[in-house]
Amino acid sequence: MKVMGIVNVTPDSFSDGGRFLDPQRAIDHGRRLVEEGADVLDIGGESTRPGAAAVEAAEELARVIPVVEGLADTAPISIDTAKAAVAAEAIAAGAGMVNDVTALGGDPDMAALCAESGVEVVLMHMLGTPRTMQDDPRYGDVVAEVRAFLLDRVESATGAGIPRDRILIDPGIGFGKTVEHNLELLGATAAFAETGLPVLVGPSRKAFIGRLDHEAPEGERLGGTVAACLAAMDGGAAMVRVHDVAPVAQAVRVAGAIRSARPD
Ligand code: HH2
User: Any idea what the CATH number is for the domain that residue 250 is in?
Assistant: First the structure.
């Protein structure tokens, strides 16, 4: 299982907002994550935490493009954006993957851009918008509904000319989900992997971990992050998106070695 390291070039991300707003600090951080074992770097300039303020494209570009340019020679780059204008410049600067939390449903130009530029695309599930998503989210069957949504978005993406083998799906941990919904989705990673599409899972430092551990703050959710990543790995996830690359990469390596040592 691969590890995607998070580089948030934002003032307001939920766990590391403001730490890497300076481009050089973001670049140094990205390099460190690669040394720690990141296979891909996910660079984002707009927070999606519940209630986060929207960011204009010009501001988002000013945040992320110098960082994409500075890291493009270091590792494969994913651009975490829902804006086609930002994705286009990031691709020109060296990004090979677009991570769109709206699953190409936000910006009408995004699908065509991804199709034309030949990048990989992450399609993520979200219920509503970041502003409203945590207002009493409800599902009949969360796994079935998230899976159906994602398969529908995959159809739409392939219809727009994005080959299936360039698409990853992501159940969107924390995006319009209660603690129970997140746990059900993590436990059902195999139901997503069974689609044959690579599954990306992003549990890193998220609120459900705090809820399960006496409201532990963002900086004290590493154990829960590792547990969630290994559960996703057990279900066949292809990649996890995390802030703490070194401990997660180590856990993934050890869990993989144990799995290989099992008698058939
Ligand atoms: N989670 C966040 C942002 N982007 N992309 C994918 N594909 N999957 C995720 O689970 C996911 C994501 C939220 O985490 P973070 O980037 O740390 O926070 P913020 O959105 O506040 O910057």
Answer: 3.20.20.20
204 near 13, Cβ under 8 Å? Answer: no
* Whole-prediction pTM: 0.97
| Calpha distance 36→171 (Å, rounded) | 26
Ligand 1 pocket at CB < 6 A: 6, 8, 10, 13-15, 44, 47-49, 80, 99, 101, 122, 124, 170, 172-173, 200, 202, 241
Radius of gyration of the chain, Cα coordinates, nearest whole angstrom: 17
> Is residue 51 over pLDDT 80?
no
Instruction: Please write the tens of the pLDDT for every residue from 130-158.
Output: 878 788 889 999 999 999 999 999 999 99
Tokens of 241: 């998106």
Instruction: Quote the CA–CA distance of 68 and 90 in Å, as a whole number.
Output: 6
74-106 pLDDT tens trace: 999 999 999 999 999 999 999 999 999 999 999
- Look up residue 239 and give its amino acid: M
Question: What phi and psi values does residue 141 have, to the nearest 5 degrees?
Answer: -135, 100
Annotated catalytic residue 241 = yes
Q: State which residues form the domain around 125.
A: 2-261
The tally of domains found in the chain comes to 1
Q: What is the pLDDT of residue 128?
A: 83
| Whether 206 is catalytic | yes
Q: Cα–Cα distance between 89 and 73 in angstroms, integer?
A: 16
Report which residue type is found at 213: D
**Distance separating alpha carbons of residues 257 and 57, to the nearest angstrom:** 44
